[in-house]
Amino acid sequence: MGRYDITVKYFATKYPHAYIRPALGAVRGQVQAVSAFRLLDKKLPEVELEVDFLAEVTYAGETFVLRPDFQTRYDADMRERMLDYRVRARRAYGKPVLSVVIWLTAEGYPGAGHNRLEEVVCGQRQLVFEFAEVRLWELEPAEYLAAGERALLPLVPLMGRQPSVEVLTQAVTAAAATPDAVERADLYTGLWVFGGLRYSRELLRSLIRREAMKESPTYREILEEGAAQSRRDDIVDALNIRFGEVPPDITRELAEVADLETLRHLHRLAVRCESLADFRAQMASAAAV
To answer: Where are the domains of the chain?
Structure first.
Protein backbone atom coordinates (compact mmCIF):
# COMPACT_ATOMS: atom_id res chain seq x y z
CA MET A 1 0.00 0.00 0.00
CA GLY A 2 1.55 3.32 -1.08
CA ARG A 3 1.69 6.53 0.93
CA TYR A 4 -1.26 8.02 -0.99
CA ASP A 5 -3.50 5.01 -0.25
CA ILE A 6 -2.42 4.96 3.39
CA THR A 7 -3.15 8.68 3.78
CA VAL A 8 -6.51 8.61 1.96
CA LYS A 9 -7.79 5.62 3.93
CA TYR A 10 -6.72 7.17 7.24
CA PHE A 11 -8.23 10.61 6.63
CA ALA A 12 -11.47 9.35 5.07
CA THR A 13 -12.01 6.92 7.95
CA LYS A 14 -11.07 9.36 10.73
CA TYR A 15 -12.98 12.31 9.27
CA PRO A 16 -15.77 10.67 7.21
CA HIS A 17 -18.21 13.58 7.27
CA ALA A 18 -15.63 15.93 5.74
CA TYR A 19 -14.94 13.51 2.87
CA ILE A 20 -18.60 12.69 2.22
CA ARG A 21 -19.37 16.33 1.39
CA PRO A 22 -17.12 16.80 -1.68
CA ALA A 23 -18.13 13.36 -3.00
CA LEU A 24 -21.82 14.28 -2.81
CA GLY A 25 -21.02 17.68 -4.28
CA ALA A 26 -20.09 15.93 -7.54
CA VAL A 27 -23.76 15.11 -8.15
CA ARG A 28 -25.70 17.50 -5.90
CA GLY A 29 -23.72 20.73 -6.20
CA GLN A 30 -23.62 22.62 -2.90
CA VAL A 31 -24.18 20.12 -0.09
CA GLN A 32 -25.78 21.35 3.10
CA ALA A 33 -26.15 18.64 5.74
CA VAL A 34 -26.08 14.86 5.60
CA SER A 35 -28.95 13.43 7.64
CA ALA A 36 -27.04 10.33 8.74
CA PHE A 37 -24.16 8.12 7.81
CA ARG A 38 -22.29 5.08 9.08
CA LEU A 39 -19.01 3.60 7.96
CA LEU A 40 -19.20 0.18 6.33
CA ASP A 41 -16.70 -2.64 6.15
CA LYS A 42 -14.27 -1.65 3.37
CA LYS A 43 -13.62 -5.28 2.39
CA LEU A 44 -15.90 -6.26 -0.48
CA PRO A 45 -16.91 -9.90 -1.04
CA GLU A 46 -15.71 -12.70 -3.32
CA VAL A 47 -12.05 -11.98 -4.13
CA GLU A 48 -11.15 -9.97 -1.03
CA LEU A 49 -10.84 -6.32 -1.97
CA GLU A 50 -10.42 -3.31 0.27
CA VAL A 51 -11.51 0.05 -1.13
CA ASP A 52 -10.58 3.58 -0.02
CA PHE A 53 -13.85 4.45 1.70
CA LEU A 54 -17.36 3.04 2.00
CA ALA A 55 -20.29 4.56 3.89
CA GLU A 56 -24.05 4.27 4.10
CA VAL A 57 -25.40 7.80 3.74
CA THR A 58 -28.85 9.30 4.20
CA TYR A 59 -29.17 12.57 2.34
CA ALA A 60 -32.20 14.49 0.99
CA GLY A 61 -34.48 11.58 1.85
CA GLU A 62 -32.35 8.93 0.11
CA THR A 63 -30.31 6.20 1.74
CA PHE A 64 -27.49 4.77 -0.35
CA VAL A 65 -23.95 3.44 -0.25
CA LEU A 66 -21.34 6.08 -1.09
CA ARG A 67 -18.26 4.67 -2.82
CA PRO A 68 -15.67 7.38 -3.53
CA ASP A 69 -12.33 6.45 -5.07
CA PHE A 70 -9.30 8.76 -4.80
CA GLN A 71 -6.98 8.68 -7.83
CA THR A 72 -3.62 10.41 -8.20
CA ARG A 73 -3.77 10.22 -12.01
CA TYR A 74 -6.01 9.05 -14.85
CA ASP A 75 -6.32 5.30 -15.22
CA ALA A 76 -7.67 3.94 -18.51
CA ASP A 77 -9.45 0.97 -16.89
CA MET A 78 -11.24 3.12 -14.29
CA ARG A 79 -14.72 2.53 -15.75
CA GLU A 80 -14.44 -1.24 -15.50
CA ARG A 81 -12.97 -1.11 -12.00
CA MET A 82 -15.62 1.30 -10.70
CA LEU A 83 -18.34 -0.91 -12.19
CA ASP A 84 -16.79 -3.95 -10.49
CA TYR A 85 -16.67 -2.10 -7.14
CA ARG A 86 -20.27 -0.97 -7.55
CA VAL A 87 -21.57 -4.48 -8.24
CA ARG A 88 -19.72 -5.85 -5.20
CA ALA A 89 -20.96 -3.08 -2.91
CA ARG A 90 -24.54 -3.50 -4.13
CA ARG A 91 -24.35 -7.26 -3.54
CA ALA A 92 -22.80 -6.80 -0.09
CA TYR A 93 -25.21 -4.17 1.26
CA GLY A 94 -28.34 -4.44 -0.92
CA LYS A 95 -28.69 -0.69 -1.45
CA PRO A 96 -28.19 1.71 -4.37
CA VAL A 97 -24.57 2.76 -4.81
CA LEU A 98 -23.29 6.24 -5.68
CA SER A 99 -19.88 5.86 -7.36
CA VAL A 100 -17.56 8.89 -7.38
CA VAL A 101 -13.96 9.29 -8.50
CA ILE A 102 -12.02 12.12 -6.85
CA TRP A 103 -9.16 13.02 -9.21
CA LEU A 104 -6.28 14.46 -7.21
CA THR A 105 -4.34 15.66 -10.26
CA ALA A 106 -5.06 16.30 -13.94
CA GLU A 107 -2.20 14.02 -15.03
CA GLY A 108 -3.34 12.13 -18.14
CA TYR A 109 -6.94 13.28 -17.71
CA PRO A 110 -8.62 12.93 -21.15
CA GLY A 111 -11.58 15.23 -20.60
CA ALA A 112 -15.33 14.66 -20.42
CA GLY A 113 -16.96 11.39 -21.41
CA HIS A 114 -14.47 8.83 -20.14
CA ASN A 115 -16.60 8.12 -17.04
CA ARG A 116 -19.41 6.31 -18.90
CA LEU A 117 -19.57 2.67 -19.92
CA GLU A 118 -22.32 1.52 -22.29
CA GLU A 119 -22.70 -1.77 -24.12
CA VAL A 120 -25.23 -2.59 -26.85
CA VAL A 121 -25.27 -6.26 -27.84
CA CYS A 122 -27.49 -7.59 -30.65
CA GLY A 123 -29.42 -4.34 -30.57
CA GLN A 124 -30.01 -4.60 -26.82
CA ARG A 125 -28.67 -2.03 -24.37
CA GLN A 126 -27.24 -4.48 -21.90
CA LEU A 127 -25.22 -2.10 -19.77
CA VAL A 128 -25.24 1.59 -18.87
CA PHE A 129 -22.94 2.76 -16.08
CA GLU A 130 -21.58 6.19 -15.22
CA PHE A 131 -19.60 7.40 -12.24
CA ALA A 132 -19.56 10.97 -10.95
CA GLU A 133 -16.32 12.97 -10.75
CA VAL A 134 -14.64 15.51 -8.50
CA ARG A 135 -11.73 17.22 -10.27
CA LEU A 136 -9.79 18.95 -7.52
CA TRP A 137 -8.08 21.36 -9.90
CA GLU A 138 -11.52 22.78 -10.76
CA LEU A 139 -12.35 23.60 -7.13
CA GLU A 140 -11.69 27.01 -5.61
CA PRO A 141 -9.19 26.66 -2.72
CA ALA A 142 -10.22 29.94 -1.09
CA GLU A 143 -13.71 28.55 -0.46
CA TYR A 144 -12.37 25.51 1.37
CA LEU A 145 -9.88 27.54 3.38
CA ALA A 146 -12.66 29.93 4.40
CA ALA A 147 -14.96 27.04 5.37
CA GLY A 148 -12.50 25.99 8.06
CA GLU A 149 -12.93 22.24 7.47
CA ARG A 150 -9.55 21.17 8.81
CA ALA A 151 -9.85 17.55 7.68
CA LEU A 152 -9.83 18.69 4.03
CA LEU A 153 -6.72 20.87 4.39
CA PRO A 154 -4.41 18.19 2.84
CA LEU A 155 -6.41 18.41 -0.41
CA VAL A 156 -6.56 22.22 -0.61
CA PRO A 157 -3.08 22.70 -2.21
CA LEU A 158 -4.25 20.46 -5.10
CA MET A 159 -7.16 22.81 -5.84
CA GLY A 160 -7.03 25.57 -8.45
CA ARG A 161 -5.79 25.45 -12.02
CA GLN A 162 -2.19 26.26 -11.14
CA PRO A 163 0.04 25.46 -8.15
CA SER A 164 0.02 28.30 -5.63
CA VAL A 165 2.69 28.70 -2.97
CA GLU A 166 0.34 31.12 -1.23
CA VAL A 167 -2.43 28.50 -1.02
CA LEU A 168 0.00 25.86 0.23
CA THR A 169 1.34 28.26 2.86
CA GLN A 170 -2.18 29.18 3.99
CA ALA A 171 -3.08 25.48 4.36
CA VAL A 172 0.06 24.82 6.43
CA THR A 173 -0.69 27.86 8.59
CA ALA A 174 -4.25 26.61 9.18
CA ALA A 175 -2.87 23.19 10.16
CA ALA A 176 -0.44 24.82 12.58
CA ALA A 177 -3.38 26.48 14.36
CA THR A 178 -4.94 23.08 15.17
CA PRO A 179 -4.81 22.71 18.97
CA ASP A 180 -4.69 18.91 19.20
CA ALA A 181 -1.11 17.69 18.69
CA VAL A 182 -2.00 14.38 16.98
CA GLU A 183 -4.53 15.98 14.65
CA ARG A 184 -2.01 18.71 13.82
CA ALA A 185 0.62 16.07 13.00
CA ASP A 186 -1.96 14.23 10.86
CA LEU A 187 -2.67 17.39 8.88
CA TYR A 188 1.01 18.11 8.36
CA THR A 189 1.46 14.53 7.12
CA GLY A 190 -1.47 14.83 4.72
CA LEU A 191 -0.12 18.13 3.38
CA TRP A 192 3.33 16.55 2.95
CA VAL A 193 1.99 13.49 1.11
CA PHE A 194 -0.54 15.16 -1.19
CA GLY A 195 1.51 18.33 -1.57
CA GLY A 196 4.20 16.17 -3.15
CA LEU A 197 1.88 15.61 -6.12
CA ARG A 198 2.16 19.28 -7.07
CA TYR A 199 5.00 20.98 -5.18
CA SER A 200 8.71 20.33 -4.79
CA ARG A 201 10.02 18.49 -1.75
CA GLU A 202 12.35 21.43 -1.11
CA LEU A 203 9.36 23.76 -0.75
CA LEU A 204 7.49 21.31 1.45
CA ARG A 205 10.55 20.84 3.67
CA SER A 206 10.77 24.62 4.10
CA LEU A 207 7.19 24.72 5.39
CA ILE A 208 6.80 21.41 7.27
CA ARG A 209 9.44 19.89 9.53
CA ARG A 210 9.60 16.09 9.73
CA GLU A 211 9.59 16.37 13.53
CA ALA A 212 6.16 18.00 13.32
CA MET A 213 4.72 14.80 11.78
CA LYS A 214 6.11 12.27 14.24
CA GLU A 215 2.97 12.01 16.36
CA SER A 216 0.81 11.11 13.36
CA PRO A 217 -0.24 7.44 13.05
CA THR A 218 -0.32 7.95 9.28
CA TYR A 219 3.28 9.14 9.23
CA ARG A 220 4.40 6.15 11.28
CA GLU A 221 2.55 3.75 8.98
CA ILE A 222 4.14 5.35 5.92
CA LEU A 223 7.60 4.97 7.47
CA GLU A 224 6.89 1.33 8.34
CA GLU A 225 5.63 0.61 4.82
CA GLY A 226 8.73 2.30 3.37
CA ALA A 227 10.99 0.13 5.52
CA ALA A 228 9.03 -2.99 4.55
CA GLN A 229 9.23 -2.13 0.83
CA SER A 230 12.97 -1.59 1.12
CA ARG A 231 13.28 -5.07 2.62
CA ARG A 232 11.16 -6.55 -0.17
CA ASP A 233 13.38 -4.88 -2.77
CA ASP A 234 16.48 -6.31 -1.08
CA ILE A 235 14.96 -9.81 -1.17
CA VAL A 236 14.08 -9.56 -4.86
CA ASP A 237 17.56 -8.18 -5.66
CA ALA A 238 19.22 -11.09 -3.86
CA LEU A 239 17.08 -13.63 -5.68
CA ASN A 240 17.67 -11.89 -9.01
CA ILE A 241 21.44 -12.00 -8.57
CA ARG A 242 21.43 -15.66 -7.60
CA PHE A 243 18.71 -17.18 -9.79
CA GLY A 244 17.73 -14.68 -12.48
CA GLU A 245 14.29 -13.13 -12.94
CA VAL A 246 12.00 -13.64 -9.96
CA PRO A 247 8.58 -15.14 -10.83
CA PRO A 248 5.55 -12.85 -10.33
CA ASP A 249 3.96 -15.16 -7.75
CA ILE A 250 6.91 -14.64 -5.39
CA THR A 251 6.80 -10.83 -5.70
CA ARG A 252 3.03 -10.91 -5.14
CA GLU A 253 3.41 -12.99 -1.99
CA LEU A 254 6.20 -10.74 -0.72
CA ALA A 255 3.92 -7.72 -1.19
CA GLU A 256 1.55 -9.25 1.35
CA VAL A 257 4.24 -9.53 4.05
CA ALA A 258 4.34 -6.45 6.28
CA ASP A 259 6.16 -7.71 9.37
CA LEU A 260 9.75 -6.41 9.35
CA GLU A 261 11.15 -9.34 11.33
CA THR A 262 9.61 -11.81 8.86
CA LEU A 263 11.09 -9.81 5.98
CA ARG A 264 14.52 -9.85 7.63
CA HIS A 265 14.25 -13.63 7.91
CA LEU A 266 13.22 -13.89 4.25
CA HIS A 267 16.18 -11.73 3.20
CA ARG A 268 18.57 -14.07 4.98
CA LEU A 269 16.76 -16.98 3.33
CA ALA A 270 17.12 -15.35 -0.10
CA VAL A 271 20.88 -15.20 0.41
CA ARG A 272 21.20 -18.84 1.59
CA CYS A 273 18.44 -20.86 -0.14
CA GLU A 274 19.35 -23.54 -2.71
CA SER A 275 16.80 -22.57 -5.36
CA LEU A 276 13.71 -20.44 -6.06
CA ALA A 277 11.59 -23.49 -5.28
CA ASP A 278 13.34 -23.81 -1.91
CA PHE A 279 12.75 -20.09 -1.21
CA ARG A 280 9.08 -20.36 -2.22
CA ALA A 281 8.49 -23.32 0.09
CA GLN A 282 10.24 -21.72 3.08
CA MET A 283 8.54 -18.36 2.42
CA ALA A 284 5.14 -20.06 2.71
CA SER A 285 6.19 -21.57 6.05
CA ALA A 286 7.51 -18.24 7.37
CA ALA A 287 4.38 -16.32 6.32
CA ALA A 288 2.17 -18.88 8.06
CA VAL A 289 3.88 -18.38 11.44
So the answer is: 3-138, 141-215, 219-288
